[in-house]
Amino acid sequence: MHNFQSFYEGYHKNRHLPKRIISKKDFTYRHIVAVLDKFCLKKNVLDIGSGVGTLDFYLALHGKTILGIETSHKAVKIANRSLKNFNLENKIKFIQEDFFKLNLNKTFDFVICSEVLEHLQDDQAAIKKIYGLIKKNGLVMITVPSENAPLSKLGVIKKFDQISGHLRRYTLDRLKLLLEENNFKVIYTQKTEGIWRNSLYVFKLNLIIKLANKFPFLSDLITWLDNLSLKLLGESQLIIVAKVVGKV
Length: 248
What we know:
Blueprint: H1 4-11, H2 30-39, E1 44-48, H3 54-61, E2 65-70, H4 73-85, E3 92-96, E4 108-114, H5 123-132, E5 134-145, H6 150-153, H7 158-164, H8 172-180, E6 184-192, H9 195-202, H10 206-214, H11 216-233, E7 237-244
Parallel strand pairs: 1-2, 1-4, 2-3, 4-5
Antiparallel strand pairs: 5-7, 6-7
């Protein structure tokens, strides 16, 4: 097991200040943004593993107040500089902290846990921690890499998973069971990201990604082609939204 802190400082070492806030058609985040637009309707949001704040800036523009938790000092530094550049300091607060050591005297309407669980040794403990941070009837959105990814079945993704710090991949059934065992009711699931889109990130075809993020028509075209491969070959990513139950 890698040193968690040093690994993620290295993971974010080449990140730069974003020049803009993402749109609905942003290629990298469009599937996640669509789910947020549908389910993140109340004001108070907690983003676990907030990185450089990409999703948080989008949500702040749409009236949300966000607390971002991130273990990487480098990522938080970039996020805070962006916060000033985008003039959103009254909407978002970023904290560098180990999620498991987090001690807040408040709960949230909506919790984001995107591309985080697969990095944690104890995902069961993480779900229990998240439960304690959500208000009665509040929601959590989780995204994780899928065990059924075509590139995983072809055996060409192991190095990518290792470099990315992935300790595991998930099936939809396993993720649903993890949530249901810890007092959540799953209300939405989505299998997304086909082999074409996944290949762009796994094989670091950054120029294509950059162009797709810049030009909405290219984002639409690649997404259309990717959705065809998704139906034929299966998903590389899972998105799930669950509601807290049992709280009074």
